[in-house]
Here is the input.
Amino acid sequence: MTAFDTLEPRPADALLGLMAAFKADPREDKIDLGVGIYRDDNGATPIMAAVKAAEERLAQAGGTKAYEGPRGNLDYCAAIEAFVYADAARPGGLISFATPGGCGGLYLGMSLIKRSAPTAKMWVSDPTWPNHLAVAATLGLPTASYPYADPAAPAVDVDKMMSALSAAEPGDGVLIQGPCHNPTGIDLTLDEWAAFGKFCADRQLLPLLDVAYHGFAQSLDEDLKGVRTFLAGVPEAILAYSCSKNFGLYRDRSGAVLVQSSSEAASEAVRTHLADIARTSYSMPPAHGPAIVATILGDAALTAIWREELEAMNARMAELRASLADALSPRSNSYDPQSLKAQNGMFSQLPFVPGGTDALKEKGVYIPGSGRINIAGLRRDDIARVGSILSEFV
Ligand SMILES: Cc1ncc(COP(=O)(O)O)c(C=O)c1O
Here is the structure.
């Protein structure tokens, strides 16, 4: 028997299976509401104009492909710090690293939680993005969940959330998503962010904020106000940022991790650990995506083009949300589709009847078993048809 013969195959990733089934489906009117990428009305995910312009500038500049160092592009790191803190006071210690996508930031963040408190648990919302659980499992970090929001509810159930988190021990990590919670689209309000910061600080919990959809809720300027309030109320925090969605750089793997500490000395120790974790896994982050972001954000004209494109994407999603809410007439009295209008970002979760998502596949509508739908996967012309198909199963 060889070494690999001893390996038990891992269960198939449900979302990748759904993507494969969608690809193999010959029907022209099939619709994919599963995969979490932004699509335009033609079902395409085009490269943003600001990104293309930045790439042209970079190509003309020549540059180099030499190693960049474990933190990656420092202008990029500074730009992400500016997004996160804006005009708010910076903490005593702050260090940021460019990472391979937001996932790289989550990997570094969870690794740091484990190094800081080897017996720590990682608390995640229920429901959450399944990869949060998978990254923690790969790192041998035990997970626990806190209730978050009923998919049909207008808001987070903060009392339930905090009551479950009362069982967390000092040093435990608490993952909380920034704007556009995946999968529910339901976010904390400004006051709730402030109260939650106090809660984490009082209990010495180590927050890990996952910001993957900055600019997809209200606007770039509004979306991180709650996160800033939270950060101002806690001595230590980790934040994973992704440029995959708001710059459309999915495959260029452009993310960052920011760590706020209470002193410069602690921050220096954090820096050495992050460098060590990076060095012993992927070594150094990809350079191309961060160079694009730094070029855009370092140039007022390109920034203006990018902001306008992002706003147009956001407006399209808001319009689709509203149209879908109006096109749904659910069988169940307990689900009010108007709640979709108050939710943020690309995702919402529909409470399908058991077997509903399989039956939908038969009708050419692809949705994962969790009931999460990608609003951006809808085309305007399809809304009435998709709304009436979905209504049969909610
Ligand atoms: C909640 C959440 N966090 C983080 C990410 C990170 O994505 P990436 O690694 O592609 O930047 C995603 C992407 O889908 C996400 O949905």
In short: The pocket of pyridoxal-5'-phosphate is lined by residues 36, 101-103, 129, 177, 182, 210, 212, 242, 244, 250, 255 (CB under 6 Å). The longest helix spans residues 300-327.
